[in-house]
């Protein structure tokens, strides 16, 4: 079935003020804790249970090298920025959390950190991966020249409804929606008649930007204000012909 998002863009008050928080939590460099452990990663994972209806999960990848120490001049493409040791442990914990649910398919961003995270789920469920280039991370331009304050400002503009805003050499949110939504919608159309769970493994910034334009009950301000942790999960289902978010990293969607 084709799920049509009929909601209008919902803009929350003070959206520009959440951009820095969103980027730190969802996509940029987050220093690893020396005391971090698999248990710490597991503590962030929600309880995911099997149901008798179609469900969809959007999952942010586990901790990778780009979250710890991006290398100047090294682009985020190809086989760059694999998972850290903690990230590998987080991916395995994630696979365990999803172990009791029937998975229909697993779509992953082509970035190494997502493929590695998705592989852990694939192995535990014996479900092959489908590469989905349309859900790769937001391109903010040349990483070696990245001005983080301009990135914050751009994300704030997206939260306020300016979907054409972009950093120098980077994508606008409209650019991302043009690649993200068709790929995701096609997968949902394929699997929505099955009482199983469809899984997407992607990135914090692209999920925060695009999911409010997929789910009918999710606002951009809320998504940007509640950046996904590594292995953070967004769940959804279909109600009355519309795709709705049922939980955003354990929070009720707004």
Task: Give an account of the 3D structure.
By secondary structure, the protein is of the alpha/beta class. The protein has a single domain (15-31, 51-248), classed as Rossmann fold. Helix content is 35%, strand content 14%. It is built from nine helices and six strands; from the N terminus they run H-H-E-H-H-E-H-E-H-H-E-H-H-E-E. It has helices at 19-26, 38-43, 65-68, 85-97, 112-125, 148-159, 173-191, 204-210, 220-225; strands at residues 55-60, 103-108, 129-131, 197-202, 233-239, 242-248. The chain has a six-stranded mixed beta sheet with strand order 3-2-4-1-5-6, with helices on both faces. Helix 5 (112-125) links the parallel strand 2 (103-108) and strand 3. Helix 1 (19-26) crosses helix 6 and helix 4 (85-97) packs parallel to helix 5 (112-125). The chain is globular. The two termini are 25 Å apart. Mean pLDDT is 84; it is low at 1-41.
Radius of gyration, taken over Cα atoms and rounded to an integer in Å: 17 Å
Give the helix/strand class.
alpha/beta
Helicity range: 25-40%
Poorly predicted residue ranges: 1-41
Instruction: Count up the helices.
Output: 9
Oligomer: single chain
Quick one: how many beta strands?
6
Total tally of structural domains: 1
CATH topology title: Rossmann fold
Q: Can you list the strand order of the major beta sheet?
A: 3-2-4-1-5-6
Strand-residue proportion: 5-15%
CATH class: Alpha Beta
Order of helices and strands: HHEHHEHEHHEHHEE
Q: Mind telling me which CATH architecture this is?
A: 3-Layer(aba) Sandwich
For the biggest sheet, the summary is:
6 strands, mixed
């Amino acid at each position: 079935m084709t799920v049509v998002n009929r909601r209008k863009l919902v803009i929350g008050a003070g959206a520009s003020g959440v951009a820095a928080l969103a980027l730190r939590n969802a996509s940029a460099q987050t220093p690893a804790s020396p005391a971090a452990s698999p248990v710490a990663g597991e503590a962030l994972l929600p309880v995911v249970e099997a149901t008798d209806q179609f469900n969809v999960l959007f999952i942010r990848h586990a901790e990778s090298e780009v979250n710890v120490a991006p290398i100047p001049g090294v682009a985020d493409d190809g086989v760059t920025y694999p998972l850290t040791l903690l990230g590998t442990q987080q991916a395995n914990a994630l696979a365990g959390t999803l172990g009791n649910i029937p998975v229909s398919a697993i779509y992953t961003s082509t970035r190494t950190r997502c493929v590695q995270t998705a592989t852990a789920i694939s192995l535990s469920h014996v479900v092959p991966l489908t590469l989905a280039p349309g859900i790769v991370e937001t391109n903010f331009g040349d990483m070696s020249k990245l001005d983080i304050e301009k990135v914050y400002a751009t994300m704030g503009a997206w939260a306020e409804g300016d979907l054409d805003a972009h950093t120098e050499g980077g994508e606008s949110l409209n650019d991302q929606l043009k690649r993200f939504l068709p790929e995701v919608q096609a997968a949902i159309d394929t699997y929505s008649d099955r009482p199983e769970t469809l899984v997407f493994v992607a990135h914090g910034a692209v999920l925060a930007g695009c999911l409010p334009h997929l789910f009918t009950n999710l606002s951009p301000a809320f998504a940007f204000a509640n950046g996904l942790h590594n292995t953070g999960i967004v769940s959804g289902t279909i109600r009355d012909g519309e795709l709705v978010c049922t939980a955003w990293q354990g929070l009720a969607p707004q």
